[in-house]
């Protein structure tokens, strides 16, 4: 196992998706629709390919899948186990997060403990829109307890999503689940839990900035948006009172670090 040489790392991308399995997989129609939405010509990458990409750029990447089994009826591909096992081979650049559908109930809690204790995952990724749940629903608090007790972060998708965008009925995706004010309740009830609000949280940008400013362990990642579209309020806060709480994230592979950084020019 290769460990990270922090002196050689220039950035940590806290938001990347693994869309391909080393066991072979077929790209979904959803991924193709997302590619069109983002104006991206990217291809799905497995963990080995992601590791090569980020190693060449002297970056690390937080990598995850999305588990929405109770909505789609499909287990995530690649699996959480595959990502964790391959990440261990590339520990110099890949940080594995687990994605668990909270609606799996006690099964999600047991899986979280197993993956944290025996597979070395370093955090949890949740997508309230795709998984159809409100973050402040107390039925899911036992899942958060696992990560708070382990000192590991939980990353929540927030705001608008490209998933289902432009499709009839938005592909069945309901935006109401991703208002960051729902996560504010979680931050109150889990004061020792590190939380990351993914994306600039449109149309609730000001709410996200307020939550991050008010709650000490709430952060914001900048993934999923080209920097040229960042609202002035976000830039102002990122350059001042939230400068230590705004994190670099791309949304690889749909938005790559190369594209994200080039858009600053």
Write the layout of secondary structure elements.
Blueprint: E1 11-17, H1 29-38, H2 47-56, E2 59-64, H3 69-72, H4 80-89, E3 94-96, E4 98-99, H5 106-119, E5 124-126, H6 128-131, H7 141-150, E6 154-157, H8 180-189, E7 195-198, H9 205-214, E8 218-221, H10 232-238, E9 246-247, H11 257-262
Helix pairs in contact: 5-7
Protein described:
The chain is α/β, with parallel strands linked by helices and 265 residues long. The chain has a single domain (6-262), classed as TIM Barrel (Alpha-Beta Barrel), CATH 3.20.20.140. Helices cover 36% and strands 13% of the residues. It is built from 11 helices and 9 strands. It has helices at residues 29-38, 47-56, 69-72, 80-89, 106-119, 128-131, 141-150, 180-189, 205-214, 232-238, 257-262; strands spanning 11-17, 59-64, 94-96, 98-99, 124-126, 154-157, 195-198, 218-221, 246-247. It has a 6-stranded parallel sheet. Helix 5 (106-119) packs parallel to helix 7 (141-150). It is globular. The chain starts with 10 loop residues before the first strand and ends with a helix. The model has no long low-confidence stretch (mean pLDDT 93).
């Amino acid at each position: 196992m290769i460990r990270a040489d922090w002196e050689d790392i220039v950035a940590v991308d806290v938001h990347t998706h693994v869309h391909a399995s080393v066991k072979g997989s077929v790209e979904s129609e959803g991924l193709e629709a997302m590619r069109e939405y983002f104006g991206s010509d990217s291809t799905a990458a497995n963990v080995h390919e992601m590791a090569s990409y980020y190693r060449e750029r002297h970056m690390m990447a937080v990598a995850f899948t999305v588990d929405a089994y109770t909505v789609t009826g499909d287990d995530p591909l690649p699996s959480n186990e595959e990502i964790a096992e391959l990440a261990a081979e590339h520990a110099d650049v890949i940080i594995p997060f687990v994605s668990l559908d909270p609606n799996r109930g006690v099964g999600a809690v047991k899986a979280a403990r197993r993956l944290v204790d025996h597979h070395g995952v370093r955090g949890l990724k949740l997508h309230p829109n795709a998984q159809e749940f409100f973050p402040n629903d107390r039925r899911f608090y036992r899942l958060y307890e696992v990560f708070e007790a382990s000192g590991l972060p939980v990353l929540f998708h927030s705001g608008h999503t490209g998933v289902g965008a432009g499709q009839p009925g938005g592909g069945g995706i309901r935006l109401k689940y991703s208002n960051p004010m729902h996560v504010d309740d979680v931050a109150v009830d889990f004061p020792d839990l590190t939380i990351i609000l993914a994306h600039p949280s449109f149309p609730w940008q000001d709410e996200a900035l307020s939550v991050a400013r008010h709650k000490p362990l709430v952060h914001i990642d900048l993934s999923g948006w080209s920097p040229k579209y960042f609202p002035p309020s976000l830039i102002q806060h990122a350059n001042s009172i939230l400068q230590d709480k705004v994190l670099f994230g791309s949304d690889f592979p749909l938005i790559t670090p190369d594209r994200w950084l080039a858009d600053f020019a």
